[in-house]
Amino acid sequence: VSRNPEEPEFHQALSEVLESIEPVIAQHPEYVEAGILERLVEPERQVLFRVPWVDDSGAIRVNRGFRVQFNSALGPYKGGLRFHPTVNLSIMKFLGFEQTFKNALTGQGIGGAKGGSDFDPHRRSDAEIMRFCQSFMTELARHIGADTDVPAGDIGVGGREIGYLFGQYRRITNRHESGVLTGKGIGWGGAQVRTEATGYGAVFFLEEMLSVRRDSVEGKTAIVSGSGNVAIYAIEKLQQLGAKPITASDSSGFIVDEAGIDLELLKDLKEAGRERISAYAARRPSARFVGSGRVWEVPGQLAIPAATQNELGSDDAAALVRGGVLAVAEGANMPSTPDAVEVFQQAGVLFAPGKAANAGGVATSALEMAQNAARERWSFEDSERRLQAIMCDIHAASFAAAERYGHPGDYVVGANAAGFVRVADAMLAQGLV
Ligand code: NDP
C-alpha cells in the first residue's frame, strides 16, 4: 500500500487474489523462496503517454494514455483498451493484474496487460473518435506487436475504435500485421464470435455451474446490468437457452421489461444508435425506465453484472438474495465488492468471479490470433463450439482447484488458484526475470 498509494482498485484486486491463494502458498514454499508474489504484483512495464488531438471546434485537447504490461510469463501481453473518463493508473493496474490470471485460466499462452485513456467518447463525433484513436495509436504502436503485446477492446472501445486504431498502426508501420489487435472486423482479419464471446461465455459458465446442481438457466428470469458489448450478448445467449432476461442499464439508469428484453430494439438503440437506455422504455410499452434506484432490487434467479467495477455492493447482493437469486456470473471485471461476494457465498448462491466467467472474450481473441497467424478463417459454429469448450475447461479447472485447496464450490478460490499456479510455474521455470 505504501508503495502504491491512492490505488484502491489495485489494492482491492491484490487482496482478493492474495487471500484466496493462501492455501496454495501453504503447499508450495518454492513460490515464496523464488519471490513469485513480490514479482507478480509489480507490472513488468508501465507506459504513460500524452494523447493530443483536435476537437471539431478546432480546440486542442490532451488526454492521458496508458498501457500496463503486467506479465508475459505465459505469452505475449494481451488485454483490452478502455476509453472512459474514470481511467487512471489504479484501474489499469487492477485490470492488468486480473487479466494475467484470467488469461492463464484460458490455457492459451497469453500474458496479461491492460491499457486505455481517460478520454470520454460519449457525445464525440465520429471524426473526433477517429482523430483521438489515431493520436493514441501513434504512441502506442511502438510498444505493441503480434509477438509482443496484442490489445483489444473494453469499455468505450468497440469495433469502430479497433478499426481506426488498426488503420493508424498499419499506416505508421507499413505492415498489415493482423495479429497486432483483436476484435477486428470480419472482413479484415477479425474472428467469428469475438463480438459475442464475453457475453456468451458468461452464460456458458452459468450453465456449467448450474449443471453441478442438476439445474440449468432454462425458464429462469435474469437480471443483467449494462447495455454494452458484454450485456447485449449475455442477453442474447440467455434467450437462446430459454432464460428470460428482463433488465439492462447504463450510467443514466436501468429498464425493466417484464415481457423480456426485445433484443433487436436494444441492439438498434445501443449498437447502431448509441442512445441512452431510457429510449428503450420510450419505444416499448411493456418496459419502464428507472432513473434512480438499483437494478439489483428487481427479483430474478440469475444475475449477470456486465457494466463496470464495484457496481454491486453488499446491499445490492442482499437484495438479489431476497429476490431469489441462485447464480451470479460476473460479465464485467470486479463488479461485485468483496462484501457483496461474501453475502452471495454465505447465502449459498453460486458465484463466478469475472476472471473465470468473462474469460470467453480474451479466449476468443486468442483464437483470432491463431487464425491470423495461420491465415485461416473458422466458421461461426466452429468458433462457438471452441468457446463453449474453453468455458467448460475453465469451469472444470476452477472447480477442481477449489476442491484441491480445501474450498469446494468456491469459484473465487478455484479460479485464483488455478490461474496463479499456471503463471507461478512458468515464472519459476524461467528464472529471475
Ligand atoms: P461497453 O463500453 O460496450 O459497455 C459498458 C456498459 O457499462 C455501458 O452500458 C455503460 O453505460 C455501462 N457503464 C460503464 N461504466 C459505467 C459506470 N461507471 N456506471 C454505470 N454504468 C457504466 O463495455 P463492455 O461491455 O465491453 O465492458 C463491460 C465490462 O465487461 C467491463 O468491466 C469490461 O472490463 C468487462 N469485460 C469486457 C470484455 C469484452 O470483451 N468487451 C471482456 C472481459 C471483460 P454508459 O454508456 O452510460 O457509460
TrEMBL record:
Q: Does the keyword Transmembrane helix apply?
A: no
Key words of the record: Oxidoreductase
Task: List, alphabetically, the SMART domains matched.
Answer: ELFV_dehydrog
Q: What InterPro entries does the record tag this protein with?
A: Aminoacid_DH-like_N_sf, Glu/Leu/Phe/Val/Trp_DH, Glu/Leu/Phe/Val/Trp_DH_C, Glu/Leu/Phe/Val/Trp_DH_dimer, Glu_DH, Glu_Leu_Phe_Val_DH, NAD(P)-bd_dom_sf, NAD_bind_Glu_DH
* Alphabetized Pfam families for the sequence: ELFV_dehydrog (PF00208), ELFV_dehydrog_N (PF02812)
Tell me the Gene3D superfamilies matching this sequence: Glutamate Dehydrogenase, chain A, domain 3, Leucine Dehydrogenase, chain A, domain 1, NAD(P)-binding Rossmann-like Domain
* CDD domains linked: NAD_bind_2_Glu_DH
Is Oxidoreductase there in the keyword field? yes
Q: Where is the Glutamate/phenylalanine/leucine/valine/L-tryptophan dehydrogenase C-terminal domain?
A: 191-431
Q: Which domain of life is it from?
A: Bacteria
**Recorded family membership:** Belongs to the Glu/Leu/Phe/Val dehydrogenases family.
**Quaternary structure?**
Homohexamer.
- Identify this protein by name: Glutamate dehydrogenase
